[in-house]
Amino acid sequence: MIFPQLDRSRIRLFKTEGRALLKLAAPILAAQLAQQTLAFIDTVMAGRVSATDLAGVAVGTSLWGPLLLFLYGVLLAVTPLVAQLHGSGRTEETGPLVRRGMLVALPLVLIAVIMLRSAGTVFTMMAVDPQIAVIATGYLKAISWGVPAAAFFFLLRNLSEGLGLARPGMIIGLASVPVNAALNYIFIYGKLGLPALGGVGCGWATAITLWFMGGGMLFIIYRAKTCAVTRFFDLAKRRGREGATQIIRLGLPIGCSLLVEASIFALIALFLSPLGADTVASHQITLNYSSLIFMIPLSISCAITIRIGHAIGKGRPDRARLVSRTGLLLNSLIALTTAGLTLLCAENIAGIYTSDSRVITASVALLHLNALYQFSDAFQVSAAAALRGYKDTRMPLLLVVVAYWVISLPLGYSLALTDVWGAPMGAKGFWVSLIIGLSIAAILLGIRLHRVERFSVPGCSR
Fold first, then answer.
1. Are 74 and 108 in contact, with CB atoms under 8 Å apart?
2. Which residues, in sequence order, are CB contacts of 50 under 8 Å at separation 6+?
3. How far apart are CA 441 and CA 401, in angstroms?
């Protein structure tokens, strides 16, 4: 069972582990929220220009977001690898591992840049509104200049967090928020003698901000004494059993899993684009808010991966099981709280993004549906993170594909844009299908985690 019968001693263990997870997750949450705030700032500032600019940024983000998540997911393999090396006392091998991660990142960066700069063809094929497509294309071409910096930042942050040091990522993440806001103001509204670029300016601001983040993270790693033992800057240090092959083997399924989930939202935005700017804007508002709230369970899930990695490295499968169960319980309780707040404050939330009454009304209906899936979303991301800590990534990828692509997306398309189930529901149909898909993913990943904990040899890749 995921949650066994509790006695007082076990309750004390849950409380102790819960505090440890929250202590590690807090700076990770700050860093994640700061990163997500960049998208929030883009959405709000573009929305203040016009609904068309907001829709353009939304459509552009629908392609940029999945690509960024795929890159992040592949490089996320560094975190459990570093955590297990650190837990087993082989910290000096973590720096060379991350350097080899750069070789993995290079072809991924090149592919992402090419795809971003070729997005106009995709928008033409999807019959995206020409005015929206122009803004989205310019946004993506601008942001493509920041992709190498994003990969470098992810590698260094994963190194730091794998060691249990989450503060560097938090510091850089928080510092990037005012930098991005200032750059947005300059590029969107045309300050300091520059032309007003509207939504396209968000892309340039984000690209420059990513270089600020990558450079800042490098500086902190260089100056931090606690990171010296990693031998990251010791180019003569080449030993270590973990290498690029391990990163690819573990990271590719993670990246694909995140891409499978994110690509659904990308396709939804594209499918909805012919329905008009108001529909796309309401979907983007709900998605952006959902992503902000999701940072809480995601941050705790990152802590779950790290804590399980340390436990496995130390040969403590009992501790690893305690970490996963505590994390699942903690995220489930948090999801119940955020769902309730979403239901109570939906209209106020939509009003933060726009003053358009039609967009607010449409957004409120979607936010109510979003509240219903937060529990399943929190549970599935916790289970997936625990499985990453065990280096189990291939089967979770298959389960996610079934839940999202085989079930959720076709169901959403039929509900939203066809009359198979009655009158087309528009954006609501897709959000109903997301609730169903996430719930199925949560059940399947929970079963897989129970099986891995009970029958598998901890630390074995499968």
1. yes
2. 198
3. 9
What average pLDDT does the structure give for the chain? 84
Model confidence at 239, in pLDDT bands (50, 70, 90)? Answer: low
What is the pTM for the complete model shown? 0.77
Res. 461 pLDDT band, cuts 50 70 90: very low
- Distance, in Å, from the CA atom of 62 to the CA atom of 119, rounded to the nearest integer, reads 11
Torsion angle (degrees, nearest 10) of CA 230, 234, 239, 244 = 80
**What backbone torsions phi and psi does residue 404 show, to the nearest 5 degrees?**
-90, -50
* Tokens 């609904």 -> residue: 51
Distance CA 427, CA 409 (A): 12
Token pair of 306 as six digits: 């790290």
462: pLDDT strictly greater than 50 = no
Q: Six-digit token pair at 247?
A: 């990163």
Q: Compute the average pLDDT of residues 94-113.
A: 88
Classified as helix, coil or strand, 251 is helix
**What gap in Å lies between CA 221 and CA 84, rounded to an integer?**
20
- Residue 281's identity, in one-letter code, is A
pLDDT tens sequence across 421-440: 877 887 788 889 989 999 99
Q: What sign does the dihedral 300-151-264-53 (CA atoms) show?
A: positive
AA letter at 409? L
Confidence at residue 458, expressed as pLDDT on a 0 to 100 scale? 43
| Position 275 pLDDT exceeds 50 | yes
Q: 381: which 2 tokens?
A: 């991301």
Q: Where are the domains of the chain?
A: 8-455
For residue 241, pLDDT over 60 is answered with no
Task: Judge residue 127's burial from the number of C-beta atoms within 10 Å of its C-beta, 0-12 exposed, 13-18 middle, 19 or more buried.
Answer: exposed
Structure tokens given for 26: 């807090």
Q: Do you know the residue count of the chain?
A: 462
Residue 285 CA: distances (Å) to CA of 55, 75, 171, 346, 367: 10, 28, 27, 11, 9
For residue 352, what are its two tokens?
A: 């933060």
